[in-house]
């Protein structure tokens, strides 16, 4: 067993001068660092930032997080995002979705506190733009939500909720 580049073969089962570790002791992860066309293996207890550990039958490896991830739990689940991206449900997005606000200090999308107001009145019962001529139509009502606490100028407005229901129409339209 050689000492490897930089003399670090700690935790290695197989180690070479040129490439470092190629096989690690159980429970350790093989982290492969690339330098130009060369690659060098090192056995680590925890994968470095920007990588996540994958346990396998033969070998445990450190794999790179997605391109927008600073650190991650798996390839599909980020914990922290790189600059100019915001964390939302394990994904790093360039902008936060509707109903959330970007928090630059934590690089996360935070849910906005919206309080639903009372339901408005039902609209007229209609089918294809008419209030008659069919057995059934549809009527709709809306409920606006307002932001709890202070409202910033750049805040995304709260979502407007609406609901519809079936309603009876006058089948024949009145003559006239």
UniProtKB/TrEMBL annotation:
Q: Which GO terms describe its biological process?
A: limb development; positive regulation of Wnt signaling pathway; Wnt signaling pathway
Keyword line: Disulfide bond, Glycoprotein, Heparin-binding, Secreted, Sensory transduction, Signal, Wnt signaling pathway
MF-aspect GO terms: heparin binding
- KW Nucleotide-binding (keyword) present: no
Gene Ontology CC, one term: extracellular region
Subcellular location as annotated: Secreted
Q: Which domain of life is it from?
A: Eukaryota
What does the similarity note say? Belongs to the R-spondin family.
Output this protein's name.
ANGP4 protein
Q: Supply the source organism for this entry.
A: Crocuta crocuta
Q: What is the lineage of its organism?
A: Eukaryota, Metazoa, Chordata, Craniata, Vertebrata
């Amino acid at each position: 067993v050689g000492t490897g580049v930089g003399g670090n073969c700690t935790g290695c089962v197989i180690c070479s001068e040129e490439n470092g570790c190629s096989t690690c002791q159980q429970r350790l992860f093989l982290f492969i660092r690339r330098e130009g066309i060369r690659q060098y293996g090192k056995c680590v207890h925890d994968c470095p930032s920007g990588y996540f550990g994958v346990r396998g039958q033969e070998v445990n490896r450190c794999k790179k997080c997605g391109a927008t991830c600073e650190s991650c739990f798996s390839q599909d689940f980020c914990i922290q995002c790189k600059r100019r991206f915001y964390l939302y449900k394990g994904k790093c997005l360039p902008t936060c979705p509707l109903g959330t606000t970007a928090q630059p200090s934590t690089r996360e999308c935070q849910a906005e506190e919206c309080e639903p107001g009372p339901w408005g009145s039902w609209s007229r019962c209609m089918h294809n733009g008419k209030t008659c001529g069919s057995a059934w139509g549809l009527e709709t009502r809306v409920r606006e939500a307002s932001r709890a606490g202070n409202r910033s100028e750049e805040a995304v407005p709260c979502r407007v909720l609406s609901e519809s229901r079936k309603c009876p129409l006058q089948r024949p339209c009145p003559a006239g």
